[in-house]
Each structure stands twice: as C-alpha cells, then as structure tokens.
Design a protein that fits this description.
Blueprint lengths: L1 H5 L3 H9 L4 E5 L5 E4 L1 H11 L6 H8 L10 E3 L2 E3 L5 E10 L5 E9 L1 H70 L1
Amino acid sequence: ETKNRKTINQSSIKEAFDNLPTGVCFFNEAGLPVLCNYAMHRFSFAVCGKDVQYITDLENCLSEDFISSAGAYKNGNVFILPDKKAWKIEKRSIADEKGNIYTQYVATDVTDLNRNREELMKENEQLRKVRAELKKLSANVVAVTREEEILNTKMRVHDEMGRCLIEAQKNCEEMYIGMDE
C-alpha cells in the first residue's frame, strides 16, 4: 500500500482528477462520457437535476431556452445555483495524438467573481445617479451664475443712473442758483 502511494498510476491519476475543484468532463465522438470528475457530476446534478449520462445533458444547459429543473438560473454561460454559488461552463473540442476528437466541458466556480461583478454593477448604478445629480447641480450653478451676473449688471446700471441723476440734480441746482443771482 505504501509503495502504491509513492508511484503514479492510473488509479492515482483518476483520484487526483476526481478531486479537482473544477468540474471537467470529456465526451467521445458518440457523445458518451469518457472521463468525468466528481465536481462535474455535482454541477450537472445541481443544474440539470441528474448526473452526466450523455453529452446532450450539458449541451442542453448551454442552450438559450434552458430552464433548470433544480432551481438554478442562467446568465449567459454562468449558472447561479440556489445556494448562490456561481459556476461558469465552457465547451471546447480537443484531439488526442491519434486524431480522435473529444468534447471537453469545464465548469468553474466563479462565485467570488460574480459577487464582485454584481457589486460593481450596483456601484455603477449609484455613480450614474450621482452623475445625474451633479449634472443638475452644474446646470443650477450655471443658472445662478447667470442670475448673479444679470443682478450685478443691473446694480451697476442703477448706480450709474443714480450718479448721473445726482450730477444732473447738482447741475440743475447750480444753474438755478446762478439764475437767482
């Protein structure tokens, strides 16, 4: 038993593959799973309500009209599970050294990224509101500045007219006094 733990064999590779936190599944050209780890089985059960039996089980998840039977909802290729965990699934085609084509599905836990994205979206919405408010305030500042300039101009005109009237009154008084003499 100790000897087996120190060597890499098919069993140890399968055990390591099964314990990956990322779900991985390979399908042959017939659509049958060739290699599928525990995380992918958990993902499939959480989203589709059943284990991976055939490639269409995961293909259906990626279709636009997919509705989860297990309470998960889909946002693009990200699935939000009832426990609020988010998983992103991706599909790739790969070939082995003999030219055999396999379809690989990878399901990655993106819960933290999804939470950060949602927080950023909320912050962006708040920033849009602040920006709209700043635009209103800016428009008000322009209007207030314009009103102040108009008021200052009116005050200058009023002061000038007052000075002119005082000068005119003085001139009239001087002329009137000059006529009395």
